[in-house]
Amino acid sequence: MKDEKKKLTRRDFIRGTVGATLGASLVGINWSKAKGAAAESSLVTIVRDKNAMDAAKNVDTGILKNMVDQTLIKFTGKNSVKDAWLSLVKPNDMIGLVPTPHLNPTHEELVTAVKNSLIDSGIPEENITNAQGGPDKPKACTALIGLPALKAHWLTGIGTVLKLYILYSGSPRSYHEQNNSKLGEIWNLPFVKGKTRLVLVDALHPLCDKGPQPDPRYKWAYNGLIAGTDPVAVETVCLKIIMNKREAMRGEPWPISPPPLCLEAADKEYGLGTSQIENIKIEHYGWDEDLLL
Amino acid sequence: MRISSKAVSSISIIIILILAILAGVILKMKTTSIRLPETIGSWTRPDSPQIVTSSNIFDYMNGAGELYIGYRFDHLEVYEYASDSQDDILVELYFMDTSDDAFGLLSLDWGGDPVVLSPSSADRTTGSKDQFSRALYGEGLLRIWSDELYARVMAYRETPEAKEAVLTIGRAIAANQRNLPGPEILESLSPVIDSEWRLRRDRTRFFRSYLVLNSIYYVSPENILDLKLSVDAITAPYEKTNDSGDRKRARFILVRYIDPESAQRALTHFHEAFLPEYKVGSRMDSATQDIHVFDVEGGWLGYRLHGSHLAIVFDCPDQESARKIIHQNILNIKEKEESNER
Question: Is A282 helix (H, G, I), strand (E, B) or coil?
């Protein structure tokens, strides 16, 4: 029998049948100019320090610690790092730190900085674990801190926040090819849903093309940390930074291809957050050169 | 706990079967002819490589494996050179079934500085009038198309010593390898159309997979062009710049299917998915010699079937441009066919 189901094509992105963010990523439709105006906006903070890495890309752990502290205080609006953490997690939570494990992995220095910050805030060390891996990892935790590394992805457009939990599915290959649009459903698995207390993106040395395999030509020192509790909003801001970097690098629009279908699906189908840039309140602190927003 | 002799026997059979399958895989794999130096400066490699096949490539690179199995991939050998004083150097040797596939992987990015690794590749040509580099270096990463091999050699941190070591490894990889010409389908590409549209040779890509096509130029999340390992396909933009510096860019795709029937089916599939408001024409075949054009979002789209070839152009500013680009490229194919018959 003939398949009568309409197939999604490039034309749908150009005519705006799919979301504006995807249209912007693929064919350069303008992002909304509105920023931080919506009453129900998701907050995303960006903290940058020009000296977070030296010329050889070694991370200055002292500066990184300050960036983590500043992120927590600015994002939560609390007066101290301890109060900030305690507004996100409970003292008796079993906290899983979830870094990007390989292929442009999260800097180990960032994982350590976050762990030390939690310990300094009174969380027992034995209550903090690395929770990257199979489904047993989140099942053993009551709170998760996502620590993905910022990178473009040749198969999904962007491979940062939403892809971070792919191993939690127990069948990562079932999210390959066109099924990558379903990545958001992993965040709604019973043993994952509601546990993510903070997403803190390692944007120290991101990759804007050819990911996930590393290609040093497309990495640059952004020296930033991007934080939020809305994973879709954080991913949307990450996407915009990557797109603007690509355009700056090539001197002309350089669309993300394929467009990150998982981003809109995470918003519209799985209700994980907002992919509408006008509904995201972006606050930036520190070094503002080449902010790319 | 005691295990019965029956259970032991069953386990033995399973182990023997697994070993037999593994042996079969290994025997089937291309044998390596690459001899890498054991030490280079302060770096030393392990005695044997990590072997990655299509069955475990996702363990090695989850999320990137589709790229390689989107081409005719045989296996991957991985070495990591370690040093006490410098960061590691990663060597990935992708053994492909054909030189075209190795070319395809390099073609995905012609950026970087061209490098001549062996005297026999000094002309850096594909054997045709089209010139493409065989090795490209940039910021610590060397990528190589050499015979049926595609290689990535990457210093995790680029230093003068690391760069020299990467190039030394590259020369060892390219030594004694054949420099086969690029894919035959490249010869069908017309470099200039009516002296106004120029091919961006630096963005010419060879592929067989719709996932790879979508990473170059997004068409659909589904495989509406029926791409598979048996097809040869290329894509490149044509550009036209007017006197005021305004630039137009059209996207050209040429696919050669295994036979005319497959090409016809693919065109029908593409048309129904991409142009659903236009009824599939009864004369939509190669015999009509018609170029079909459509005014769609993003610009004019044109296509034409010719035997096993399907030529499509997207994003044209007018229907005349679409017709010209298709016409000239199909003419090239015809001339080539006629010259082969002579």
Answer: strand
